[in-house]
Design brief:
The protein has helices at residues 12-16, 19-32, 70-82, 95-104, 114-117, 135-140, 145-153, 156-166, 178-185, 208-215, 217-231, 245-260, 291-298, 327-339, 341-345, 378-385, and strands at 4-9, 39-44, 56-59, 63-65, 194-199, 235-241, 265-268, 273-282, 322-326, 355-360, 368-373. By secondary structure, it is of the alpha/beta class. The strands form three sheets. It has a five-stranded mixed β-sheet with strand order 7-8-6-5-9, sandwiched between helices. Strands 2-1-3-4 form a four-stranded mixed β-sheet, covered by helices on one side.
Length: 388
């Protein structure tokens, strides 16, 4: 019987700080202390607080250990997992929670810390929570339920209306209304239509899309299939830069698992709807972040922007009607379908609904990944969440 779970960050940041070595050391010590039947080790995506990696969280108590080294592992296993004593010297506290601990002597959860309490994790909901390489864990947190709902209960027009009413705008920089973009593509007749995910994240210091693909790739797979159903497309491409090896590996694994489970391919959910996905690697050209240059690159040509009009919704990839959104935009879709347009539009501002993921880097105390409601001030992001 499993009585404890050890979650170890497997994002790029923590991996570069040695989290894979930690996993091996934990497995070795769990075995040597005879805990293999009681303790389960899980590799997750990014927890967000990259400045404190490698990060290890022990459940069910939720103890957050930061900057864990290989030399700390035996102590955590022996003291915490075997004897039930938290290794206090490794527990993360900020100045605010430190006072609570001193005053009340309580073990503070992650959500109580200044870095996390102002966040509203929609896109990042599963990052640091599930094993991104295990489709069963994604399904256990309502994964593919949105696709099932769409294919069995909704018409394409219903989907377009929900996405439009949600107020979701493109998160790649342009801010174009997502529902409107899909609706422009849907009525166009063609023997083939495409859905494209822009994961060519080339902005210096940006790692939002990378972290979503590393921590929750199935959300993007599911969302692209939903988009395909809404606009009448049966083929999708995820264009991701080759410098993201962990993201590429997990994305491809997610696609393979979805096909194995019948969630991609022919006659999904017995609905008659077919949809397939393919990963295309980019060589790191910054210009390929622009949607028409990206499509030109997928076609096997030098990535150069095309004049518009015609717009991709009319003449896009291989000259066919195409919808292109970035990773973060797609990652919102399953939750919008499951929880409704009103739920999503209740967050953010009047003109910009929902949340936004930011990568905090540079001369700041808490570098990492944050997701906050639209409309929050830069002062709060930098000085409160980021620690100044």
């Amino acid at each position: 019987m499993i009585r404890a779970h050890i979650l170890i960050c497997g994002g790029t940041g923590c991996t570069s700080s040695g989290s894979l070595k930690l996993q091996k050391e934990f497995n070795k010590n769990i075995e040597s202390f005879g805990l293999a039947e009681e303790v389960k080790l899980i590799q997750t995506g990014c927890f967000g607080l990259c400045a404190l990696g490698p990060i290890v969280i022990v459940y069910p108590d939720g103890t957050f250990y930061s900057r864990v080294t290989v030399d700390d592992v035996k102590e955590i296993v022996e003291e915490h997992l075997l004897k039930g004593r938290i290794v206090e010297r490794l527990v993360y506290h900020d100045s605010e929670t430190e006072e609570i601990v001193k005053r009340e002597g309580a073990n503070i959860s992650l959500s109580d810390t200044t870095f996390y309490k102002s966040q509203n994790r929609v896109v990042l909901r599963n990052c640091g929570v599930i094993n991104p390489e295990n489709i069963d864990e994604y399904i256990a947190v309502d994964g593919y339920a949105a696709l099932g709902k769409v294919l069995t209960e909704m018409t394409p027009e219903d989907v377009l209306k929900v996405v439009t009413d949600s107020g979701l705008r493109g998160r790649g920089g342009g801010g174009f209304p997502t529902g409107r973009k899909w609706a422009l593509c849907a009525p166009n007749k063609a023997d083939q239509k495409y859905v494209v995910c822009n994961a060519d994240e080339g902005d210096p210091g940006a790692f939002m899309d990378r972290s979503v693909l590393e921590g929750d790739p199935h959300a993007v797979v599911e969302a692209m299939a939903i988009c395909g159903y809404a606009v009448g497309a049966t083929k999708g491409y995820v264009y991701v830069r080759a410098e993201y090896p962990i993201a590429v590996k997990r994305l491809q694994r997610a696609i393979d698992q979805a096909k194995e489970y019948g969630l991609l391919g022919k006659d999904i959910f017995g609905s008659g709807f077919d949809f397939d996905l393919e990963v295309k690697l980019g060589a790191g050209a910054f210009v390929c972040g622009e949607e028409t240059a990206l499509m030109t690159s997928i076609e096997g040509n030098r990535g150069e922007p095309r004049p518009r009009p015609p717009y991709p919704a009319v003449k896009g990839l291989f000259g066919k009607p195409t919808v292109e959104n970035n990773v973060e935009t797609f990652a919102n879709i399953p939750q919008i379908i499951l929880k409704g347009a009103e739920w999503f539009s209740s967050m953010g501002t009047e003109r910009s609904k929902g949340t936004k993921v930011f990568a905090l880097g540079g001369k700041i105390k808490h570098t990492g990944l944050v997701e906050i409601p639209m409309g929050i001030t830069l002062d709060k992001i930098i000085n409160e969440i980021g620690g100044g």
